[in-house]
């Protein structure tokens, strides 16, 4: 039976009991997300990345509630403590799978070249001016996530709109705007360098 059957107060509905349970352990859920995302800190810079991981953790917590078998808890153990350990293990598993799938195998060398194939960007000859701009950006590229580098390439070198990038990357326009916001912060030193050259 779900852990909420044990956790629920008398006459409390299952949905209310789960909501109360989840908010009670919201700090634990967030801590688990931080511990997992810290391992991939070079690839997770934007709020959208963290929010996605947080949603996966909450879904895993919900899954753990329904999979938990209270009948297997020995009498000397506190059922709630056993459940939280089980839920944490479930969240760690889901987060690890998600982060490995989307970030671990991404290399910094693939920022510009591999993204062409991934998003079906036409192979166009690069203009000399573009090459000059790319050289200026080269030292800053290692600080960008793959998606920020993709946004930079599509918006700067291909003149794609936020909507076009969102459709190509299969994300919302809000997510693309968050990439842009992070990108601006990271490229601030470049902006200052260009000002000095004027």
UniProtKB/TrEMBL annotation:
UniProt name for this protein: RNA polymerase sigma factor 70 region 4 type 2 domain-containing protein
Superkingdom of the organism of origin: Bacteria
Positions of the RNA polymerase sigma factor 70 region 4 type domain: 136-187
Molecular function GO terms recorded: DNA binding; sigma factor activity
One of the protein's GO biological processes: DNA-templated transcription initiation
